Amino acid sequence: METLTIGIAGGTGSGKTTITKKIIAEFGSDVSVIHHDSYYKAHDDMTYKERCKLNYDHPDSFDTPLLLEHLRKLKAGESVEAPVYDYTIHNRSKETETIKPARVLLVEGILIYAEPELCRELDIKIYVDTDADVRILRRIVRDVKKRGRTLDSVIDQYLSTVKPMHEEFVEPSKRRADIIIPEGGRNTVALEMVLERIRGYLGRNQNG
User: What is the pLDDT of residues 101-114, one digit of tens each?
Assistant: First the structure.
């Protein structure tokens, strides 16, 4: 089975997940997704307070070699057991998630284009480009409502690591993208172009 591998990158709160969900909604079981965030390194040797102080927005915070191993297995037609990350404790959970091979593989994450070896595994590289003020507001809402964080902790993390790491790693990695989508999932014209490219690969027309 040949596989089309698509990267979806962009800053925190840019709309990567929205685009990923719309692709899944369109193509269903023909799509599997690998989330870079699932591959944060485990820190079982640290206390919760120590883990809270780590920089989670640097490329070194990810176990990218494991992601690459899993991506290559999926492209070879093998299922993998991906880690499951628990944001409420800043650590991997004991569970894993089975990801099955599919004709279209999405690799979604903030820093995937900061890794040249990972870029080489991607057939199409999409960068979702959204204004910083919109992204931080989305992050605040997400982290407070869904990840059990306090408003102060989200703001402190954004100013101390998220913003500087975005400027140092995420924004420069945009140069490696093939397609830049302003305003993420709200850009229906760009999104339809991506969907049409996948339809063509899968041999579908718009009516199925």
Answer: 999 999 999 999 99
For 91, the token pair is: 């650590």
Q: Tell me how far apart the alpha carbons of residues 8 and 127 are, in angstroms, rounded to a whole number.
A: 6
Give the DSSP letter string of 3-54. Answer: -EEEEEEESTTSSHHHHHHHHHHHHGGGEEEEEGGGGBPP-TTS-HHHHHTS
Q: Assign residue 90 a region: left if phi > 0, alpha if psi is -120 to 50, beta otherwise?
A: left
Query: Looking at the whole model, is its pTM more than 0.70?
Result: yes
Q: What is the DSSP letter of 206?
A: T
Q: Are 42 and 90 in contact (CB under 8 A)?
A: no
Q: How far is the C-alpha of 57 from the C-alpha of 18, rounded, in Å?
A: 21
| Distances 4 to 161, 164, 198, 206 between C-alpha atoms, Å | 33, 33, 8, 19
**Token couple for 182:** 């302003």
Q: What confidence tens digit (pLDDT) does each residue in 147-156 have? A: 778 888 878 8
Which region holds residue 15: left if phi is over 0, alpha if psi is between -120 and 50, else beta? left
Are 109 and 35 spatial neighbours (Cβ–Cβ below 8 Å)? yes
With a cut of 90, say whether residue 165 has pLDDT above it. Answer: no
Q: What average pLDDT does range 64-68 have in this prediction?
A: 96
Sign, CA torsion 107/75/77/74: negative
**Element spanning 188, H or E:** helix 188-202
